[in-house]
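Hi there,

I know you've been waiting on this one. I reran it after we fixed the sequence typo, so this is the corrected version. Both the input and the resulting structure follow.
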Amino acid sequence: MNNEFKSETKNENIFTKLNPEILKAIRKFGLKEPTTIQRLSIESILNGKNVLLISKTGTGKTLASMLPIFDMWLKLKPKPISILFITPLKSLNRDHIEHLVYWCQELGMEVTVRHGDTSQYERRMQVEFPNDIMISTPETLQAILPGRKIKEHLKNVKWCVLDDCHEIADSKRGTQLTIALERLRELCGHDFQMIMLSATIGEPEKVANFFSGGRPVKIIKAITTKEMDISVINPKPEIGDKKIGSKLNISTETAARLRIIIDLIKEHRSTLAFTNTREFAEVLSSRIKMIDRKFPSGIHHSSLSKEIRIKAEKEFKEEAIKAIVSTSSLQLGIDIGSVDLVLQYMSPRQVSQMIQRAGRSGHEAERVSKGIIISTDEDDVFESAVIARKAMNEELEPLNFHDNAFDVLAHQIVGLTMDSWKIEIPKAYEIFKRAYPYRNLTFTEFLEVCKQLQNLGLIFLNGEIKKKRRGFEYYFTQLSTIPDTKQFRVINTLDNSFVGVLDEEFIALHGESDTTFIIKGQAWRIITVEEDRVMVEPFEDIEAAIPGWEGELIPVPYDVSQEVGRLRSILAQKLKDKPERNVVEDLIYRYPVDENSSRKMVKIIKKQLDYGIVPDDKTILIEDFENIVTIHSCFGTIVNETLGRFLTSLLTARVGSVGLKTDPYRIILQFQTKNTDLIKEILFSTNPEFLQHYLELNLTRSSLFEWKFVHVAKRFGAISRGAEYGKVRMGRIIDSYIGSPLYKETLKELETEKLDIKKATEILSKIQAREVAVIFKPGLSPLGKIGLRHKFAEVVGPQRPEVEIFTLFKQRLFNTKVRLVCLNCAQWDMVSKVEDISKDTRCKKCQAKLLAVVHPRNPDIVKIIKKKIKNKETTEEQNKKFERARKTADLFLVYGKKAAVALAARGVGPITARRILAQFHKSDEEFLRDLLDAERQFIKTRKYWSS
């Protein structure tokens, strides 16, 4: 494989090699000279080579790929569809359409787009009158490959452009696409030229092999004069920040960060401010608006509607707003105009993320890409500094592919039967082996998956693989490998207000009663989870809560955490030999950080030195404090999660339940009965070769395994796509699939995405070989305190202590409307707020106090009471309703307004109300607290009641 690295030099204008019609269009478009990537790549593409073009955002990669294709098309004038342009996001299609339409109009070509939202009319036109270029998503390619008519046009594909291939290479979407490309080659009966476009990426050779199936690919990486300026700042609080902090009920340090964001946006023309999660984007955006309601900013993330996203993009492009707070939804090449600053709030967690995001600024090739990371606590400053340094040196993470994914294989086997009615087993196996992720697939594994599909009734298997009717529905309902994720509405039980939404994964892993979590900057406690709702109440201890968006966080890589460890070690050594000021200056010289960031890093290491041990890349510190053991391990998110699960799997068997929390720099264990000697025994005596076995035993009994199993089972067609986690009895289903490809794939997916068994095994071996030191120490160090402190409460708004919870409940209770009906004469009723009922409230007709307290929207009860008073015939159901009303009237007769208050609480009927009213209460507050407890109990248990 050739790898071309060239700097910008004054060569002849490569455009002169193109067709005169294209040159005319180039001049009309206003292009004077090619960008570096265009100059380096056009000739190779004209020569028919497969290429991988690597260049930063905004440097003309798309045009570099299309201009030579236009030239070849003008010479050959092939039948349509001759050019297939595959893009990973639907939202990119509108940008590519706008640009490609211009060129097609100038050159007499036709372009169309095909995705899930394409109308039936457009689809029919694409079949009857095919266009020269089709823009498609990977999933749409899956849908059209078996199409009886459109596949006749797909046979004409001569050029395939894959845009932003780095976005899907390490996902099952990418794995599925590699097979679709092999199916397309099979359909064409010839190979087509592949042009892959990518932002800066680690291991480009692997990516080229991945999508080309190992065919020869020329890698062309454009190193231009376009610079990247990335820095880390940690703003010092100023006098005005105290006022902001007081207004928003946040720390002065957090207020300083919000203030600097606003200042930086004002100083620049157009700013993108990135956060790591959707919820944090919402929180940050709302806090900025709370400081300045008229501040010209918008918000953009994947949970917002398409209309809202497009509106934000349009306003930003037209400079009606100066900034957008966004997640990765604006990380790709959506055309949003000129950006001269990218802000990243907190560490981006990965180098590739920072490069991609910073690349959105200085969009033209000759301009500098300016990115600023606004760091928070000590962990975040260290991590941000390392990522900024690595980004400036383009030290990107390696990609982790899904090899031999059985669920994707299953879907594509059925896809082959859609392409043709039947296919011989050896031929099908040969097609799959051509796809790079399946290069090591054994024939035995292939047959196991085929037999699994036969058992599920999706194919016929008899020397050949044959199409079955059930397979048709399965194939087209599983076009996407992205799991459908249900969202749960979060409802505040105190005032019945809508709080926000939680994803199904969070509910699957954390949705137990009394679990506390953070959403929209507020802590909440789960009372119960219902069909599509999570009933909650405010919770005062935000330190103990789990972020509702925790599952969204991308993992911090091993290499980043290791460099953080090395940097700790360097600072510790320098502090022993040099004055603190010199160490601060030296750190600023070595890393792109401001003075306050440097001081913060040096200060925490100095404090840790005073404690005695600084954990680093080759030193593990294990400290025990109360019932908690903190293992300081600079191994990254996934490795620490792997080691943590390994430890808990063995500890739980010996000492009972052990709580586990991990971050990129720690494994935190919470014991009922602490035993540090047992941890030592496990680390030094367990054979590293058995680590995977212990892990898999632990994993297969976990909620995480069940959660993954549901999605893998759906991709296999073993569970319907509409099945919801929690509604299916997973235990028995999983047991019935033990040892099957479905079961094995669930483990493989977990071990690929959530764990790193290979690296964890290597670390355990190094511990036992004394290559990694392990030091045990009692107490809690400064770095240990950071781990125990909840780090995700950044920009959190007002906390709600029990007093405020109680006040909200009281307000809602007294604002609740009830209907009072006279059981004495049955001639009077009224609807009133509870607070408006007086101690002297009586029937206005007969002056009786025998008043039933019923729901205000229940006029039927009045009719029932009139019937009973007049001794008219009533049904059994009506008798039950009257008896309930009579009991409430008895309570009102004895307790008056207090009875109405009790009966206004949710789920408090006459029996519960009588019990509470009969109790001795020192004050009204005690009485209301009993009602609040009763309401909580009702909400928690009502799903078990039939009525």
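Quick highlight: Confidence is low (pLDDT under 50) at residues 1-11, 791-801.

Best,
R. S.
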